[in-house]
Model the fold of this input.
Amino acid sequence: MERKWWHDKVAYQIYPKSFLDTNGDGIGDLRGVISKLDYLKELGVDIIWLSPIYKSPFVDQGYDISDYYAIAEEFGTMEEFDELLHEAKKRNMYILMDLVVNHCSIEHEWFKKALEDPEGEYADFFYFREGKDGNPPDNLRSYFGGSVWEPVPNSNKYYLHLFSKEQPDLNWENPKLREEVYKMVNWWLDKGLAGFRIDAIMNIKKDLEFPMLEPDGDDGLAICFRTIESLNEKNPEGIDLFLKELKERTFKPHDALTVAEAFNIDKSALSKFIGEDGYFSTIFDFSAETMVNGEHGWYDTPDFTVDEWKNELFSAQEMAEGIGFMANIIENHDEPRGVSRYLPTYAQNDMGKKMIATVSLLFRGLPFIYQGQEIGMTNSEWNDITEFNDINTKDQYNVARDAGLSDDEAMDACRKFSRDNARTPMQWTFKENAGFTEGTPWLKLNPNYVDINVESQEKDPDSVLNYYKKLIALRKARKYSETFIYGNFKRELEDESKIVAYSRSLNDQKIIIVANFDGVQREISIDESLKEILISNSNRNIDFDMAKDTGFQFVMEPSEVFVFEVEI
Done:
């Protein structure tokens, strides 16, 4: 594998609106990010991904962009952004921004011009289509509910929006639109940006026949990703032109790091996406996320076992072997908190939080930490649907109610799966408003900030935060970094249910990670000679001397994890 500048790095996602507010308006800002660069550097972070900070009406929290060249005044100024780039560079840190080019905002100049002349040049920057027999062009349902088609005022046409009606889809079939996108991307890279996280990129290729599909709900509609998936399966080269051109015209000349949000890529196509000449540097591993998707919505999300979760993650590791790097996550801004979602109830404690961190951060790939993950932030408490801000949560609540669920049942689904769980303000201190703001927070705080916060954990050598620091330091340690970065992945202890175990091997070094996700003690047998414990969340010593030639048997406590170096 050709070595890249980002291979040995650790990344951290910031949701700026909820990170740190420095001017008292209740909204996080760039000045807050700048003030915490040293905190992130001490944690071991090299790369910072900022969720959208562009000018926006914030219908979908900044993923509806009205000006790609401007910073939203809620977050600060372009001068402050330039200062952030400068300060990050001083610390050998890199900044990524969100690249949102499947859609923009109805407030964007292009869309305003399109509405002024539905037959004109800018209308072709979008999908303006006539209806069929007095109805929209097809029966697709948007990701946020309702038809993907919205009437164009003073016209017999509709415009396409796979997300909210305030987010019209951009027409990538139009070369003029693509040129505008490439110009914008290069403008940011020339400014000093290290790269992008690329939002919803698999949606840019549409089935231009806009077919009617068999409804999958009582509303007579079919979820829009069905046609996107079907199109990619029927014509996997269809999106090829767009992605190749995007890379060649922008990313490649700048040696940019690109991390794509791309779901359901199978092994046969993976090399096109993250191979030596792939469209992107890496893609997020969403295998766990897709495993728990409900058929109709959050309300019918299936339960899963530890072994099913383990198998999904391990399969993704195996699929990428010899092809490229995945970007490994426990959570992000679009999901509930990982420790509340993936840890069994009995493991939702500090031991469990350290355990799942160990499993994730030592995988092969680029590890991403989401803000607050390093202190073990959890899902919040929600009493009423009005407390949520997220547009998707409100839609899912209505979907559940329309399916016949009670208010309590619909709320229970939202409590578990709302994206707002990850968007509650960062918990810096145990003092008022968690140290996030001196004003009124834009979103309700998680009340457990009095117990889970940075200030308290920095003082506790056994805290989740300090464990993350040790874990990242181990991953980067000169003696082991080559193995953790480039070493092969292999399943271990496969017959042990609820035991998550794998090894990383390179040349004459082998490291085994063993985690007990069971709620009881487990006796474990490793048929290899063990050299030493590199890290453990229990700080328990084990005497290897009596078993170096015959393997080793030992008892693991619930939620205990060990990282062993093997004697070779």
